[in-house]
């Protein structure tokens, strides 16, 4: 859970830093884009965590079968 929160916070910070370099965007659009990017990073982290969990569970079952 902590890693997902850290990924979310770094996603927000990185996206805000990138968006602030774009002079033609309104501040509200910059914040919305940062939130959307952070949500995408969070979903990717959750899917990655679930994939690792499934892989480890599968490897443990294979090891027990031997």
From TrEMBL:
Regions that span the bilayer: none
Its predominant location is mitochondrion
The alphabetized UniProt keywords are: Membrane, Transmembrane, Transmembrane helix
Which domain of life does the protein's organism represent?
Eukaryota
Q: Name one GO biological process term.
A: mitochondrial respiratory chain complex IV assembly
| Listed Pfam families | HIG_1_N
Q: State a GO cellular component annotated for this protein.
A: mitochondrion
Places the protein is found: Mitochondrion
The UniProt record lists the HIG1 domain at 1-64
Q: What is the protein name for this chain?
A: HIG1 domain-containing protein
Which organism encodes this protein?
Linum tenue
Give the source lineage, highest ranks first. Answer: Eukaryota, Viridiplantae, Streptophyta, Embryophyta, Tracheophyta
């Amino acid at each position: 859970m902590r890693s997902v929160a850290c990924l979310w916070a770094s996603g927000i910070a990185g996206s805000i830093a990138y968006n602030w370099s774009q002079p033609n965007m309104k501040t509200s659009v910059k914040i919305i884009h940062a939130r959307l990017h952070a949500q995408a990073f969070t979903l990717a982290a959750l899917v990655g965590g679930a994939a690792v969990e499934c892989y480890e569970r599968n490897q443990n079952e294979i090891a027990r079968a031997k």
